[in-house]
Amino acid sequence: MVQPTRSLYVIQHTDAEYLGHLEDHLEGRNIRFTYMRPHTADGKLPATVKFTDGMILLGGGPWGAAGTRNLPSLDDEIQLVKQCMLEGAPVIGIGIGAQVLALASGGSVEAAPLAFDVQTAHRTDPDALNGFLPEIYPMVTYMRDQPVAPPHGRVLSETEDGGHALFQVAENCFGFAGHPGIKLGMIEDLIMEFDESPDDIGAGLDKFRAAQTELVDALVPIMTGLIQLTGWMDGRHSENMPQSRTNEGL
């Protein structure tokens, strides 16, 4: 049986951060994606009527959601995610995207300074991601502020200091505090893209380089569980599917 082609929208908040290693996992499963860039002069967010297959919201570098330096499109994206969830479509939030998902689903965001760190996330639920989430895995964050899952949310893993590393709301919506498919070049480009950068960048880069292999290895089971729970490889969410290709921005 031929599997239906999926087409996702990917909300990009900086020039530097994109799907990274996630691209290979999506393309290998014939899951298409279109980047939307609301942070650019001619950028826009997708129309809600086209959300059947869902969307991924990426990180935002120094942008946050707790009031210090809020993402310019924050309010619009919160409404966008709410509509997407009402339609039962999957939402994956990463970094600032996880903060948007938390706010849209009744959670909150804690103020925190811009920081770049490589930590070890610890699984808190053995059934997380259909049992595919590794018990421990490296988590890279380059972010201001921290997402807090709503009371009805399911915390799947925590950071070393007890923060929410990965949480789930509804059946098919997930918030990742760190980018599971991040590449070294993204961090280097984020440093160059913005005037503001975290303290002690050198130490963070050294930790990142040491963790690269573990990051890539951990992404394999993470994506296996995500693909199953989002329904991107089965017959769910197929009506009104976006027909436009591709991995190119609009």
Characterise the protein shown here.
This protein is an alpha/beta fold and 250 residues long. It has a single domain (6-230), classed as 3-Layer(aba) Sandwich (Rossmann fold), CATH 3.40.50.880. 27% of the residues lie in helices and 23% in strands. The protein has five helices and eleven strands. Strands 2-1-3-4-11-10-9-6-7 form a nine-stranded mixed beta sheet. The chain has a two-stranded antiparallel ribbon with strand order 5-8. Strand 10 (164-169) and strand 11 form a beta hairpin. The longest helix is centred in the last third of the chain and has 30 residues, at 201-230. It is globular, with a radius of gyration of 17 Å. The two termini are 32 Å apart. The model is unreliable at 236-250 (pLDDT under 50).
Give the SSE map:
Blueprint (H helix, E strand, L loop, with lengths): L5 E6 L10 H6 L3 E6 L18 E3 L16 H13 L4 E4 L1 H9 L3 E3 L4 E9 L12 E8 L2 E3 L5 E5 L5 E6 L3 E4 L7 H10 L7 H30 L20
Parallel strand pairs: 1-2, 1-3, 3-4, 4-11
Antiparallel strand pairs: 5-8, 6-7, 6-9, 9-10, 10-11
The proportion of residues forming helix, as a percent range, comes to 25-40%
Low-pLDDT residue intervals, each spanning 5 or more residues: 236-250
Task: Specify the CATH class.
Answer: Alpha Beta
Supply the number of structural domains.
1
Q: What CATH architecture label applies?
A: 3-Layer(aba) Sandwich
Q: Kindly provide the radius of gyration, computed on alpha-carbon positions and rounded to a whole number of angstroms.
A: 17 Å
